[in-house]
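Let us practice reading a record.
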Amino acid sequence: MTATPASNVATPPVVDRETWLRERNELLVREKAHTREGDAIAAARRQLPMTLMPAVTVQGPGGDTPLVEVFEGRRMLIAYFHMWHDGKPYEDQCEGCTFSTCHMQMLDYLHARDVTYAVFCQGPYDESAPFAEFMGYTFPWYSAKDSDPALADGRGFGFISCYLRDGDQVYETYWTTGRGVEALTTSYHALDLTVYGRQEHWEDSPEGWPRVTGHPWRLNGRPTAQWSRPGVAPR
């Protein structure tokens, strides 16, 4: 007997377990090929050359902070360049950057591999640091608003950059933007495993699959991650 769906949302066809296992194992072949290709791309990424950074600074709780000090003594640094809208309330700040950075709360595994994670915000430190506190972020937060333009190097904020420290010299080794920043978003990777996926309009899903209404990263007008934070009422 087939169970009646709890709602009128479409569901996959029901088959016997042998058929289901066969089709799932066929997909597994493609998944393994995808994993191996990802490993090959990561290997190529590790073989990229690097470029020397000038002696730039960012602004932190202690004022101007040389880039080399952001490493906190570790050899590698992953920096997320966070968009900011000066003078706007928290609910009007970039929902995409909020979505990316809110996932990065457990840093122990990065630290165990000699990697520091930090955010370089586009806005002024005094204005943006309270936002980071409101969000409960545990990672270092800096402002790049008055930094040497060589730090962003003409790239629009909303990207990841990776650095290597050799003594007091800092080198940029990699950067990515757009969907490349999904490397931080574990929620998306988890949703991709579920039957309805991310439920966004661009996905190739069967007819009748649920779709997010409104903005995919906002809930009732706020970036979704803000609703779980204390003091969530608009300022």
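A brief commentary: The first helix runs from residue 17 to 46.
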